[in-house]
Amino acid sequence: MTLVVEGLRKGFRRKRGPYQEVLRGVDLAVEQGEFVSLIGHSGCGKSTLLNLVAGLQMPDSGRILLDGKAIDGPGPDRAMVFQNYSLLPRLSLLANVREAARAARPDRPKERTDEIVERYLTAVGLWEHRDKRPAQISGGMAQRTAVARAFAVSPRLLLLDEPFGALDALTRARLQQQLVELWTHESETETVLMVTHGIDEAVLLADRIVVMANPPSPSVVEVLDIPIPRPRDRVTIVDEPAFRATQERLMALLTAESAHAA
Amino acid sequence: MTMTTGAPLDTEQATPPHVRPDQPAPPTTRPRAGGALERLRAMGWALVGLAVLGALWQLGSALSPDLPSPAEGLRELWRLLSNPFYDNGPNDKGVGRHVLISLQRVFTGFTMAALVGIPLGLFIGATKRGWQAGNPVVQLLRPVSPLAWFPIWLIITKNPGKAAVYVIFITALWPTVLNTAAGAGAIPRDQRNVALVFQFGRMAYLRHVLLPNALPAVVTGLRQSMGIAWMVIVAVEMLSGGAGIGGFVWESYNTGNLAAVTAAILIIGSLGLLLDVGFLRLGRRVALEEVQA
């Protein structure tokens, strides 16, 4: 699934205060099968961009094209993993994944959906816990459920909004690996768009990194290619020459950005 | 910069409570404190409070000789409770029968209020148009005293008993409507986004997002409605006379049996307390559990 964003603008008016343009003309093209990371400081609009692609909000101007067709709302071709897990608290993990999968794909026969739900819950290692409620599991388990839920919809474009930000470093590492495995081997999901705060995470996971910025800079400052071959190992990746260069470039961009904002 | 090693470690720890930043904290289940000793302490302080009340009553009866003393009131209470269910006709029944009559009216009116109030509250709270259409009506009718409603329902039903039930319905309706509306309007944005992204249909949204989130508020509303219903029945029955605990109060007053009036007050208050505690317990069971971090 190819994603094309053209001239996207989106702003918000606070109750008291001026109209704030969060996205000031974003142009982006994501190829089929790419993993693209959006990175930037708070307020640069990366989550807003993700919400617009998901269809949760409408842009003020500009277009978002999926496979050449403009989107006009959410759809089963896109699924999202939210920052705050966002599991329905009164449903079991199984029910959380199943209800979402059924709602997003009503035409798919129930047995098929149940198969897929079981497959992804097993893939994230939570099948034994499927009857537990969100209040009874840890944050890492909740986020794994959210990831399983997103994949169970069989989306062609997967959207992630700082999915691992609230987790400890070890759990985060594990989930990053699981995400890449699911994307590469276990699903028909081709394209991934992920918002992240972490430079390391972006370089480890992404094919390209879109660096975004707050005003007065343009919304998209630079797009970096990550020519590091897959599969990537987090231990040996530090030896890749491109790793160091990318990391330094990102640091430079983001530090300059915070100097602006200060 | 450190990179963690590839070896997966099983170190998942419980995270801070299930955070929904755009909503105030939901009612929590109270942790079971201390056990027996804590309960004894609580009972002790309750007795202190009641003793203060008793002392004020005693003082009142000393200052106002027509007012029965606590001793007289309790003696009368004992007498009433010793034969609560006798029935010698419409004006001479045991206090237990009166209470049952009143409870039956309360429950009928309350059930009507719940059956109408919950859907109405959901509708008002969940949609903007619902709010714009419904809220003015609610605010207009809510302050009307039950005693003002009584003549209207009497005219419509021509039966004081039925009128009483309808008065309860129309006054107990509003806490349920308003609390339900508040609950329906306070769906956490995260859950709404989930419903949007995964394209929940109307039924799925109702079952999995709207109702579960509104449920604690609904129970709060029902609890308040029950409290009002119980208050209203006494007032309305005093107005209409006849059977029922309110009628009993008025009858006792008219025959000069003030001790019976005070006894009836104790009965009414105790029953109200029991009803309230029942709903409180229900509310706790229905409240969302929070992660014990």
What features would you highlight for this structure?
heterodimer, A: 262 residues, Rossmann fold, 7 helices, B: 293 residues, mainly alpha, MetI-like fold, 10 helices
Tell me what the structure shows.
- The complex is a heterodimer of chains A (262) and B (293).
- With 262 residues, chain A is of the alpha/beta class.
- Chain A has one domain (3-197, 205-240): Rossmann fold (3-Layer(aba) Sandwich), CATH 3.40.50.300.
- Helix content of chain A is 36%, strand content 24%.
- In chain A, the strands form two sheets. Chain A has a six-stranded mixed sheet, with helices on both faces.
- In chain A, α2 crosses α3 (110-123).
- By secondary structure, chain B is mainly α.
- Helix content of chain B is 72%, strand content 0%.
- In chain B, α3 runs antiparallel to α8 and α8 runs antiparallel to α10 (258-286).
- The relative contact order of chain B is 0.14.
- Residues 1-23 of chain B have low confidence and may be disordered.
- The interface between A and B is large, with 51 and 36 residues.
Short account of what is shown:
The complex is a heterodimer of chains A (262) and B (293). With 262 residues, chain A is an alpha/beta fold.
